[in-house]
Amino acid sequence: MTETIVRPRRPEDDAQSVSIANQVFSEFPPESVEETRHWIKNTPPTAYRSDLVAERDGTVVGSGNLYEMFWAAERNRYSMNMVVAPTLWGQGIGSALYNAFLADVQRRGGTRLYTWIKSNVPEAASFAEHRGFAPSGHEHRMSRLDVHVANLDGYDGLEDRLRAEDIRVTTVAALDPDETQLHAIHALDNDTTKDVPQSEEFVSTPFETWYRDAFQAPGASTESFWLALHGDRPVGMAVLRRQGPNAAWNSFTGVTADFRGKGVARALKKRTIDWARANGVDYIFTGNDVSNERMLAVNVRLGYQPLPPITEMVKDL
After folding, report:
1. Which terminus of the chain, N or C, has less C-beta within 10 A?
2. How open is the CA angle 240-251-172, to the nearest 5 degrees?
3. CA-based angle 92:98:101, to the nearest 5?
4. 249 in Cβ contact with 285 (< 8 Å)
5. Sign of the CA dihedral 298, 301, 303, 306?
6. Count of beta carbons in the 10 Å neighbourhood of residue 144
7. Tell me, what's the pLDDT at 294?
8. Could you write out the DSSP letters of every residue in 38-107?
9. CA distances from 121 to 118, 129, 162, 261 (A)
């Protein structure tokens, strides 16, 4: 049998690693090498991260990453993700990557390890379960919206009604925020993320990391970052990040607790659809925890169609 070599990732590996990941997640818009390198580079310097590849006969046949969950309240929590070329499943490549990551996280004193699997791939579930992982109880309902057939019934006049309550919707580009306003938007992001169902208690994302992801990641733009403002206070946000030739990810939608139920999220969602239609984006992709019933209801009504869900798995070490 051909030997599998696991080694640290090098930049020249990225094109092949990205190609494999795009094969595995073919229902989503293709990720670029530039995007992958951004996510690697933008891990906070205080958080541990390891990127490995599996190689056979000089060719990359799998890759993965292990990183410290720097946003979590509890320390020593880690997340691991791996992909292997689909034609080579069952040949020990994933095992070689996993064994290297497991040894690494154990050396670092990790107490809990998370990973995500595609729920429609039995091989992935079997791989994780045989290594002591179990479902955490969290699952992302992945979905896609054809913006040209989105159901916008009942959305007419929504922003007019919000303006009557001193709530207006604008973009970061139009607002041109100063440093104080940027920190207020960052605080809104952190505060609303705390309400997203998740296994580990969320504390915060460092400002510098958040800023680079929000405005400097490939596909990100201040033109596709919307805010709902009550006076000068940001109370809601929605973000689109372009990916692939005609698609975008709904990176995040959040509304502060005291302004929910007023239609703010719906107004922000409509802005994302209007912008997509005007800017050559045919499809918007998103993922919602299945227990986030309020946001799921908004998306289902708009016409988001389900894709294979992604299940979180966890192993206590």
Report:
1. N
2. 50
3. 145
4. yes
5. positive
6. 18
7. 86
8. HHHHTS-TTS-EEEEEEEETTEEEEEEEEEE-TTBSSSSEEEEEEEE-GGGTTSSHHHHHHHHHHHHHHH
9. 6, 13, 44, 37
Of 11, 51, 58, 55, residue with least CA distance to 33: 11
Neighbours of 274 (CB within 10 A): 14
The half-sphere exposure of 171 on its side-chain side, counting CA atoms within 13 A, is 16
Q: What does the block give as tokens for 189?
A: 């992001």
Task: State both tokens at 167.
Answer: 């709530």
Q: Tell the residue number behind the tokens 């997640």, with chain if given.
A: 25
Find where tokens 């925890």 sit.
289
Per-residue CA distances from 283 to 36, 148, 205 (Å): 21, 8, 28
HSE-CB for 211 with a 13 A CA cutoff: 10
Q: How far apart are CA 17 and CA 9, in angstroms?
A: 9
Are 237 and 227 in contact by the 8 Å Cβ rule? The answer is yes
Give the separation between CA 77 and CA 68, rounded to whole angstroms: 6
The DSSP 8-state label assigned to residue 245 in this structure reads S
Q: Any idea how long the chain is?
A: 317
pTM of the model: 0.95
Token digits for 272? 């994302």
**Given CA atoms 112, 113, 116, 119 in this order, what sign does their dihedral have?**
negative
- Taking the chain (317 residues) in runs of 10, the rounded mean pLDDT of each run is 93 98 96 96 96 97 98 97 97 98 98 96 96 97 97 95 98 98 98 96 97 97 98 97 96 95 96 98 96 90 96 98
Q: What is the reported pLDDT for 175?
A: 98
Coil, strand or helix at 198: coil
E strands of the chain, at which residues?
5-8, 49-56, 59-68, 77-84, 112-118, 134-146, 167-171, 225-230, 233-242, 247-255, 283-289, 305-306, 310-316
